[in-house]
Each structure stands twice: as C-alpha cells, then as structure tokens.
Amino acid sequence: MDRQGVASFARFVACGGGVGLASSGALIVLAGAMPLAVANAAVSAVSTLLANELHSRITFRRGRASLRVHLESTGTAVAAYLVTTAALLGLEAFAGDAGELTRQAVYLSASALAGIARFAVLKLVVFARTARPAKAVRPVRIAVRTHTPEDMAAVA
C-alpha cells in the first residue's frame, strides 16, 4: 500500500473508531430510556449513516456521500456485522464455556479482519467509482497586439 493508502486507512480507523466510541456512549444513554434492542437499532442506524458520511468526506475525500455510496457502504457494514456475529456464534457452538476474555479476543479479531476487508471494498469498489476525474485543461488564446514605432508616433 502506498503512502496515500496508509493515510486513508489511518483516517478510516480514526473515523470509524470515533463513531464507535460515540455510539457506545449513546447506547448507554438511550438504553436507560428504551429497550436495549430498540436503542441498539437506533444507534446502529445513525452511526452507520454518520460513518458513511465521514468516510466519504474525510477518509476518501470524495465530498458528500451520494445515496449509492450510503447504500453500498451500509452493505459493507452489514457484512462486517455478519462476520462478527458468525464468529461469536461459532465460538459458542464449539466452545460454549469459553471465558469472557476468549469471547472478546474472538470478537475483536473478527472485527479487525472485517474492518480491513471493509476498508478494501470501500477503497477499491465503492469510492473507486466515485473518483472525480481530473479537470481537463483547456488552452487559452491570448491576443497580443504589437505596435511599431510609427503606430506609437501616430498616437502621440
């Protein structure tokens, strides 16, 4: 990965991590006012839209996200959710008595792998299609009038 790719990955982690931390706080606040599942759904929807917009504007520097970008980015978030859920369900099926540290290790590992895959899909597919073409340079014609000494004498 080139320097630009590393920089965009760092922005991806910062934006996604920031939204994740804010979402965690929002979930704690909302869970006191409504059922946890409803709070989680609300926080997930809002945080996904926010993260999509931040990735479009900051991570990949493409400006405001279009509806297509929001839908495709949301698809990658859903795929990442399915990967982490499958990892946790797999752990429960094969090692139902695993401790909390093991559960967290599996979850964080699956999240990291899903995040790397999500970044790759966003960079190579979703935002590759929205790359702004370079502006064409149009030649500029400049008219230059030259004056002879006789022309200047006639003016004076």
From TrEMBL:
It comes from the Bacteria. The chain crosses the membrane at residues 12-31, 37-54, 75-95, 107-128. Keywords: Membrane, Transmembrane, Transmembrane helix. This is Uncharacterized protein.
